Amino acid sequence: MSGPARILLGLLAGLALGLLARLGLGDHPALAGAIRYAIEPLGRMWLGALIMVVIPLILSTLALGVAGLGDLKRLGRVGAVTLACFLGLTALSTTLGLGAMNLVQPGRSLDPAVKTQLMEAYRGDTAQMTEKMGLSQSTFDINLLVNIVPRNPVKAAANGDMLAVIFFALVLGIALTRMREDRVAPLKGVLESLGEAMVAIIELVMKLAPLGVFCLIFSVAARFGYQLLWNLLKYMLTVLGSMLLFQIVGYGLVLRLLARRSPLDFLRRIRVVMVTAFSTSSSNATLPTSIQTAERDLGISPQVAGFVLPLGATMNMNGTALFEGATVLFLAQVFGVNLGLGQQLVVVLMSVVTAIGVAGIPGGSLPLLMMVLAMVGVPPEGIALILGVDRLLDMSRTVLNVTGDLTTATLVERFCGKPKAEGSAIIEG
What we know:
Layout: H1 3-25, H2 29-51, H3 54-67, H4 76-104, H5 112-133, H6 142-146, H7 153-158, H8 162-177, H9 181-207, H10 209-224, H11 229-259, H12 263-269, H13 271-280, H14 283-296, H15 302-315, H16 318-334, H17 341-356, H18 366-375, H19 384-416
């Protein structure tokens, strides 16, 4: 049985047995004790195993992502256009996901009493982190900006101050671009090994996902009954609808207005890439097909394709950012956490930044998503509610990710033409 099938089986088993326990035992002390002292701790231990990789994963991936750009002074027009497209498309997709959730509000129809119970059950795990991050206000605070710059990066990492860790990782990456290659190679090797180790841990932990999902969803179902199911369905349909809208309309407008290309013709030419992305749920696994399609079917030069697409597989996660933003707001609605405009802007920012640090493997976004949830006061344990449908959403957001890479490559080719540098180099001297 495949991994996704086992996770789905764990979800269904936990849901069914949890509902039966709720109907048969209700609030019986024996059931409450089993949940509190056995079932829920196992689920939280699994989540903790995912959360523990967040800081080293962000540090290694973000630093290497920036370092991989090369000398920032020499990136020239190609690099500037590429980065602008990455950031712009990711921000737009996140905004669309948040907008759809604000419009549909799939978590608002939940019984207020259930929301109160959910928040009381999980509030203690996030209150301290929320206060520490300075995100308890609905608007930006000057201290939030000041505290981004850590006086002690090690202390910031130990305290879970993720904004400071992200800032340090970005600065470290910039510093690496200014060092001699012989001096920077050892540190890059360490960071690469660290990143690969974190990916290996994620893959290992995800093997235990059926048990973790079972425990977490059993706890929720036994406590709150069937009331969450309808809300979960509306959430899934809202996310899929948002992805489809951005895939057709969002990318379509960008291609038509900026690249002067037919969106329908573009989608027809990249259909093999989309199928590959959907079936593998991995931007990295789709990369060879993306490069071949870009050069053969889209007429993009090998120099541009060889620069933009590998970089995009790491840094340009439009679908992942949309998913993160929408999921954070949905779970906030479910748990009764009111996210004001300022906090939603923080979600947009963090979705854009953390999308760079997402491992290009199935389920790679989950640890970073839990970090964003905790930052805005939403219990990370709430992710258990969406894990059962995440496989379909993962496949769909990968399609959005690789389409965004090819759209960016098309824009770079349109605005920059053939690079001036010879061979495979695309950086202007």
